[in-house]
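Figure 3 (text version): structure tokens given as input.
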């Protein structure tokens, strides 16, 4: 006998895990379903500490946004923005400067629907449902046209998303297409899963998502560093996520602190 379906919108696929909902669960969020929790718990068993990696990644996102604000950036394009959780980009940015504008982009139904609700009363923030591998669609969207002035520097966020872009889809070309549309002074923040340090464990964990449209493609230190080609990396360069400009302490005393690389770079 199959168990009854949990309540959820008809248009959400409840038969397969979604990376957005798995990540939400790893962060302690409530926008996930049994199929996601099962996949996440399996991933945690084979890759212990993955929940800590998700938390460090989220903290990196916050520090990267604050860095961008320090650089005078007031507009953000957040690609693969995920399901809203604690510390969303528009909240971090608008706390520092209420005039900040943010366009979120994701292709996951739950991420888009929940973001629509969260930003409904915020005229400076919008969500676009799109595939980030089609930069021309994103850059020519009404949301970008209305909120972002592409003649002024933009904070481009690609946090924990480029490992969903295969080599065939040309991740370097995708990044270049966005940056080509942005002026000097724009800043890219990127984090990316790697199998450099725990190859067997990472392979077992990413297999849990292999029957979804979001296959995971971990990359080596050199491959992740190459994604910043043509940009000026700011200190400390490409490092494990907790080590990118930590605040008081990295908190990275568990395993997994090098499973996700992070870097921030400026277009000159
Ligand atoms: C691990 S979450 C990261 C969320 C957020 N950036 C963060 O770091 O906290 C990855 C997100 O990227 C989205 N995603 C993956 N591939 C995508 C694609 N090709 N186009 C749009 N969104 C994508 C997923 O739906 C998911 O919400």
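Below: residues designed for each position.
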């Amino acid at each position: 006998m199959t168990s009854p379906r949990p309540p959820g919108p008809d248009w959400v696929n409840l038969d397969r895990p979604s990376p957005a909902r798995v990540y939400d669960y790893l962060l302690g969020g409530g926008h996930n379903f049994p199929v996601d929790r099962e996949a996440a718990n399996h991933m945690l068993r084979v890759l212990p500490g993955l929940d800590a990696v998700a938390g460090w990644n989220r903290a990196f996102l916050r520090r990267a946004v604050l860095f961008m604000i320090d650089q005078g950036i007031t507009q953000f394009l957040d690609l693969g923005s995920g399901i809203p959780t604690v510390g969303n980009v528009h909240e971090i940015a608008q706390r520092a400067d209420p005039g900040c504008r943010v366009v979120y982009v994701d292709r996951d139904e739950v991420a888009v629907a929940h973001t629509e609700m969260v930003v409904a009363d915020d005229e400076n923030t919008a969500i676009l449902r799109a595939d980030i591998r089609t930069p021309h669609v994103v850059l020519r969207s009404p949301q970008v046209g209305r909120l972002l002035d592409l003649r002024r520097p933009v904070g481009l966020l690609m946090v924990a998303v480029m490992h969903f872009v295969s080599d065939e889809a040309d991740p370097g070309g995708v990044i270049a297409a966005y940056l080509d549309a942005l002026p000097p002074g724009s800043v890219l923040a990127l984090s990316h899963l790697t199998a450099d340090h725990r190859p067997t464990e990472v392979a077992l964990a990413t297999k849990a998502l292999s029957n979804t449209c979001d296959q995971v493609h971990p990359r080596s230190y050199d491959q992740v560093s190459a994604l910043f080609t043509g940009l000026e990396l700011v200190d400390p360069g490409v490092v494990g996520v907790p080590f990118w400009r930590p605040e008081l302490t990295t908190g990275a005393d568990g395993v997994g602190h090098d499973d996700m690389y992070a870097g921030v770079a400026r277009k000159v």
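The beta strands are 75-79, 101-106, 125-129, 155-159, 187-193, 232-233, 239-240, 260-266.
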